[in-house]
Amino acid sequence: MDQQLRLGRIVLEDTQAVHQQVTVDLVFQGNDVKGGIEHYGIWRDRTEGSVCPFVLNENGEADFGSGYSGEDRIYQFEILTAPINLGGQIGWRCDQYATQLKIVSITQLV
Asked: Residues 6 or more apart from 73 whose CB is under 8 A from it?
């Protein structure tokens, strides 16, 4: 049986710095995030007012591109493999930084 696709928006807060949020629009197939496609999101610092868009690639990497510092900034983001539930925590890391992001909002868009 083919499962219907739907779009959801997930908002997460950094457990070490709650003023920093990640919002990502995900395509779901059934209860799972659909793999093999790109998803789009933003990282936001509510204190500084900074907003940085990224592409979540099919490997679970949040790719910010090279527009901010001249070098690609890529973070491992475990949202493609982790259970999606309110209050759940998802890993977010790069070579210099690692944290857990807590899901604070789940909204079905379509």
From this structure: 63, 64, 65, 66, 94
4-31 pLDDT, tens digit each: 899 999 999 999 999 999 999 999 988 8
How far apart, in Å, are the Cα atoms of 73 and each of 11, 37, 81, 101? 21, 20, 21, 18
The domain spans of the chain are 5-108
Q: Which helix (H) or strand (E) holds 16?
A: none
Decide: 4 and 110 in contact? Cβ < 8 Å.
Answer: no
**pTM of the complete model beyond 0.85:** yes
Which residue's structure tokens are 């457990």? 15
Give the span between the Cα atoms of 98 and 88, in whole angstroms.
Answer: 16
Sign of the torsion formed by the C-alpha atoms of 46, 94, 98 and 91? positive
Tokens of 67: 């527009």
| Amino acid letter, residue 77 | F
CA gap 85, 59 in Å, rounded: 21
